[in-house]
Design a protein that fits this description.
3 domains; eight-stranded parallel barrel; 29 strands; seven-stranded antiparallel beta sheet; alpha/beta; globular
């Protein structure tokens, strides 16, 4: 069996973040284009996308553009032109939600079915495979067993989210933001009402829980389940976060790069899809980046404590508890090194998140410029490590491609070849036999091993000459520069050829009517069920009738003037957030 290439797919808010992701280990990045990218605040120009594609090509990494909003009829021509612009810029795939795009004259670019297509069943993935999709992004709610069953009955490559923020609703099936404020999640304008505080009410209007965040989930972290996911059939591991800054993307990408590489060392049937290996000058630690606490969600079935009911904000890393304190000082029981300017936080007696700044640190003692409100025994988290932040921000990535060099001679001079890629550069020059062969070979080895700040790292240098030659440093330098140009031009040549490709209309042999059968709602359509959720408020709050054996009356959630009814499908273990109509 041939080994399987595995992709680590990272988010890119913009060109800067995309380059940072690649330089810190991503095999592919996904980025929004000028429009229709499901994140209205994360659009990018075609010029920037083309520049990102050129950088990615150096490592044989991929660039995917999100074109994954639902479209109005009068937008489809613009979307079609945008697809062609992306193709000509060098994009490797488009991620789409609106299946009516398949009826347009698209370029020969691979299409990936966005998780917004609600890809949770074997039947759904089979439909998308029949439509010609070359990759399907599965729903986050799936378990290992469900993924295995989808893999068993389909052949299309499967992508799965492994890290980042979680939407409480099935992707593509959330209309709460649109209902409340006319800001559609399916149009890239979600206002995230799920992160707001809500009261939980019974049928009589009695407040059961007040001012919590019952729809807010912890962040996903499936780093402990990567090997299981590989064996279940996932070949692309996706990090969420197209609104995240570079420091987040650097850290989380590096973390999953290390975890996957460790698996590849033990499991030769899997290998990294792109080229290059990375080293990092900061502590790679997901807890130091924005997080609401972690969960692996439903990967092993329903489990407690997947929600973040007390705060939608980042808690950061747990560092210890308060040993002693007065109103503006505290001493911590911790093995962490603290710094002036660190951001700390804790939950007070009312389970409210309180943030404080460590203005002056002396060992484990912290002084604040205002009363902090912590008590002895309070659990302290650090959500801003100022020294670590500086290190990450300074990191430009150190991604290198190993090369094997062979120096040989030609009739007119010498040839320098990269053995793995068979790329070569010849230079006509005079041949001078060395009077000190040992010193001449030593100088050649030394010069050919120096590749400075390029992306290449020579791990083997074979000097295959008929006799020792005295080759000046200037000649060896010119040969290295020539080979470097050849190595870096390969991907760019392939990109430039795209401009002459013409795609025939209707390249997707779409069965008549199938697109209309499986496509999602039109952009301005709002159903009565505003959310479809695997997360269950009854289960999270100890009211599940399957566990308690007690029936539960109707439940409602309320925020200000907005009140919604909760419906429960216990047979299928689903919760719906519904209008009162």
């Amino acid at each position: 069996m041939n080994p399987t290439p595995i992709k680590l797919l990272s988010p890119a808010k913009n060109l800067e973040v995309g380059i940072a992701a690649i330089n810190h280990g991503a095999d592919a990045v996904y980025i929004g284009g000028p429009a229709f990218g499901a994140r209205e605040k994360a659009g990018n120009s075609i010029k920037d996308i083309e520049q990102l594609c050129r950088h990615a090509s150096l490592f044989d990494a991929k660039v995917y553009v999100t074109l994954n909003t639902l479209l109005y009829e009068n937008e489809k021509e613009e979307a079609r032109r945008l697809a062609w612009d992306c193709w000509n810029a060098g994009v490797d795939a488009l991620i789409i939600q609106d299946l009516s795009l398949l009826e347009l004259d698209l370029p020969p670019v691979p299409l990936h079915a966005s998780t917004q297509c609600d890809n949770l069943t074997v039947e759904r993935v089979q439909e998308l495979e029949r439509l010609g999709f070359e990759q399907v992004v599965l729903g986050r709610e799936l378990s290992i067993d469900q993924i295995k069953e989808i893999r068993r009955q389909t052949t299309v490559p499967l992508e799965f989210f492994v890290h980042g923020s979680l939407c409480v609703s099935h992707s593509g099936q959330c209309y709460l933001s649109q209902h409340i404020g006319n800001r559609s999640a399916n149009r890239g304008a979600c206002a995230q009402p799920c992160r707001l505080p809500w009261d939980l009410l019974d049928a009589d209007g009695k407040v059961l829980i007040k001012g919590r965040h019952p729809l807010c989930l912890k962040d996903m972290n499936n780093s402990a389940n990567l090997e299981e996911l590989l064996d279940a059939g996932i070949t692309c591991f996706k990090i969420e976060g197209r609104l995240k800054d570079a420091d987040y993307v650097k850290n989380i990408t590096a973390f999953y790069r290390q975890r996957l590489d460790a698996i590849f060392e033990r499991r030769p049937e899997y290998f990294q899809a792109s080229q290059g290996h990375c080293t990092y000058n900061f502590e790679v630690n997901p807890e130091k980046s924005f997080n609401r606490g972690f969960t692996d969600y439903f990967i092993h079935g329903r489990q407690p404590n997947i929600g973040s009911p007390f705060t939608p904000k980042s808690m950061g890393e747990y560092i210890g508890e308060v040993k002693w304190c007065n109103s503006v000082q505290m001493e911590l029981l911790t093995d962490k090194i603290l710094h002036n300017g660190d951001g700390l936080c804790f939950l007070n007696q009312d389970e409210e998140l309180i943030g404080i700044r460590a203005d002056v640190v002396n060992g484990n003692k912290v002084s604040c410029n205002r009363p902090h409100g912590a008590q002895r025994g309070s659990k302290i988290y650090r959500n801003y490590d100022i020294e670590w932040q500086r290190q990450v921000e300074a990191s430009t990535g150190n991604r290198k491609i190993d090369i094997e060099l062979v120096l040989s001679e030609t009739d007119e001079g010498f040839e320098l070849t990269e053995k793995r890629s068979t790329s070569c550069f010849q230079l006509p020059t005079n041949k001078i036999v060395a009077t000190n062969p040992e010193k001449a070979l030593e100088n050649i080895q030394k010069k050919l091993s120096q590749w400075g700040d390029t992306i290449y790292n020579p791990i083997c240098i074979n000097i295959a000459l008929s006799q020792p030659y005295l080759i000046p440093a200037s000649v060896l330098g010119e040969m290295k520069r020539g080979l470097l140009a050849v190595l870096t031009s390969c991907g760019r040549t392939n990109l430039s050829l795209r401009h002459i490709v013409v795609s025939p209309a209707g390249r997707y042999a779409v069965p008549q009517g199938l697109v209309r059968e499986v496509r999602n709602l039109v952009p301005d359509e709002i159903p009565n069920h505003l959310m479809t959720c695997h997360h269950c408020i009854r289960y999270a709050n100890g009211m599940c009738p399957k566990i308690t054996g007690k029936p539960v009356d109707s439940l409602f959630i309320r925020n200000g003037e907005n009140t919604f009814r909760l419906e429960f499908d216990c047979k299928n273990c689903l919760m719906y957030v519904c209008t009162l109509d």
